[in-house]
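Section: Multi-chain targets

For targets with more than one molecule, the full set of components is provided together so that the structure can be written out for the assembly as a whole rather than chain by chain. Components appear in the order listed by the source. The example entry contains two components.
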Amino acid sequence: MAEHETHDFDVIIIGAGGAGLRAAIEARAMGLRTALVCKSLLGKAHTVMAEGGVAAALGNVYAEDSWQVHFRDTMRGGKMLNNWRMAQLHAQEAPDRVRELEEWGALFDRTKDGLILQRDFGGHRFARLAHVGDRTGLELIRTLQQKAVADGIDVFMEVKVLRLLHDADGVVSGLIGYRRPSGEFVVFTAKAVVMATGGVGKSWMYTSNSWESTGDGHALTIWAGGDLIDMEAVQFHPTGMVWPLSVRGILVTEGVRGDGGVLRNSEGNRFMFDYIPPMFAAETADSEDEADKWYDDHSAGRRPPELLPRDEVARSINNEVKSGRGSPHGGVFLDIATRRTPEDIRRRLPSMYHQFKELAGVDITTEAMEVGPTCHYIMGGVRVDADSAATTVSGLFAAGEVAGGMHGANRLGGNSLSDLLVFGRRAGIGAAEFAQGRTDTPRVDPDQVAEIVDGAVAPFELEGGENPYDVHHDLQEVMQSLVGIIRTGSELEEALVKLDALEDRARRVSMSGGRRYNPGWDMTNDLPAMLTVSRCTTLGAIHRKESRGGHTRDDFPKPDPEMGTVNFVERIPAGDAGAGAGGTPSIHSITVSPEPIPEMPDDLKKLLEEAT
Amino acid sequence: MVEETDDPAGGGAGEEVTMRVWRGDEAGGEFAEYVMPAQEGEVVLDVIHRVQAVHAPDLACRWNCKAGKCGSCSAEINGRPALMCMTRMDTLPVGQPVTVAPMRAFPILRDLVTDVSYNYEVAKRIPPFDPRPKTIDEEKAGGYRMQQIDIERSQEFRKCIECYLCQDVCHVIRDHEENKTAFAGPRFFARTAELEMHPLDVNDRRELLQQEQGLGKCNITKCCTEVCPEHIKITDNAIIPLKERVVDASYDPIAWLGRKIRNRTKRTPTEASVDSPSSGPAAVQPDIEVHGIPGGEVNGSATVSIPTAQEASAE
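Its structure, encoded as tokens over all components, is:
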């Protein structure tokens, strides 16, 4: 067996963003020996970049808000592709999860009555997002991080996980990875594992995601025989920075629009009034005058079209640019300077103010921002049981962005922070209960470990092979140009062919410089995951021959009611271990099958009808 | 190696920039030079990434968000501690090589990456947030009531992205390795101040500040404040008020008596160990109740501690 250190725990959580931390806190509270394993330093996970807020029907600003309305907004925003039970649990439990953060030290902005202040966001009928200026993610991760530290949870920082390990009967028994600072391999045995690895954005050229978002959890799960659903459902956030090129894709919070910012094209028109879809027409203002009244009093007018769900706004911006009405650098204008006072802007949007000032030389209190769509979030992901967060692999649980179903075909802003709190906790409970019920001792197969180690170090033994950075760059180009915001059948087929070629190249990467803190080696180990999820997204996009939420097909521009009743499930059939990049299972055997979405109970159906 | 040019380091097309990047490990190392084509609008981290992609795939650097939000890519750029992702090339001196070195205050792991575990160890030793119980009104309202004005002091410190640049620049740490065992550093003074000024918190960390965190070693040179990418006024708003509180706790019998009479919620660990755990919250309850009346405009922090003149002026 290859040389490595070994640790044993009851529950291991992969990923220390919001979902992972929340899961760890819960498993620990239940008395389990719990550890977090994360790819970066603690507190640096992608959650830190969430800006606008966490959605929860607290009713602090609009007392008429309730979980029922939140549920309805979430389902409609997701174009009814959501797992209804997840959406229900999420809406019901989010308020408690937010209040609990306050008991752990979070300091949200306040209402005049001293309660948690809530702000408006796209797709939410009422002002619902608890926030701290525009740095809510930082508040959330710091609060959870400090709680986890206070609870004495073991954290293994800067560990890249290579593969899940399993017993002879297929139950998860642990995982193998390496410590990035030393390059030494490390094996963890565990009675249950929680996947909380976040998203996949790093496979696209222009993304708001950090380098970590390489789809590790999606890939680890499908390699272990688990199901992924609706991987084509990728959200392009409408407002990323577009200039300078070096910052292209960096997020501009939806809070800018929630707080009064409007979108204009090069002709100065508030073009969103031209893109109001029938589904939202009844509740969206049809004049600037009406829209402007709404900000101060939601009963004085209907909502501004700038606050339609993200998929609608992103497509509209895309269309304005394509029609030649874009800004100089290929975006549109986001204007808050003419709508709010400089003091207001600096107080409510301090990070945006600094981000534009320091990175683009733009003063957002006097000038409009240039913005355009950026790859932001994947709604699809690991198939889970709503209540327990159990995946289809025994002993494996998943929560947060890596899990699929909660957001359907399009996620509402603010629903991801609440998602990771609600389902992070549930995954912690699910994993803890599974571990408690497990009587055997998890064992790992030394041959499996040795094989994975061999695959991981192979790039050092190959001379003159591919540069992994080049392969990554080319992957980003393929996904950006062929599997981007607007898709079409022929381009998706072309993407598949190109992904095959990229996988061949990824199998022939070379690396030098040793295993100690070597980002190039990390890249060789991230590539198999990125190639796997990119393929899953492309396959899902080929099969979903309709436009729904974040998935837009030029050749099938309308939603298809039939397709709205199914999830596209992707899996690698058992026994299909093959020779993918880095010794991973072959992704050529991934199958795609439509499976019916669970039927919504009548009382919830009624909620949707009543509210519309 | 360096080409003469009048354009800024991050100048237009056709220009080149020379990056002098420290390469090595704990055994030693040296600066390596990489000449790269200049591109408009780039930050230092962009150029480091291009060096990785083209010349040095194994060049070690830490980064995550590339948007100034995660605090991972701290380094010393032309000798000044800064985030690589927030340092634009066109702000650096014209026609000179750009020197990028790892933070000096921490042990080298490799190239630009240092071992920052000292900071995580200090964090573990700070007594955690411990909130007072909710009032009856708050139980009904479903959450604590705090006025915005009362949380703003702590909110300033919660902007911290833990880049540890303040720790890096602090001479107590930077020049005296031996101090690390008994000095928390600016980041954790800010963290302690955040907890001490939190309107709900009832823990008292003043003994810790003096005896374990080495607050007295700070002589207020404000270097930490200068390098903070979040523009947190660490010295004025955290360290000086903390120094005041420590002095207050140690030497001022009248303030001590005043707190006793007012049933104040802040207690030192010594005081806390005298009381039974159950009597603490019960004892503070009536005082909190008075200020928790719905619609009341009472400044909640008044029940927690009495701000000193210096704290007030620091705001």
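Chain A touches chain B through 68 residues (CB under 8 Å).
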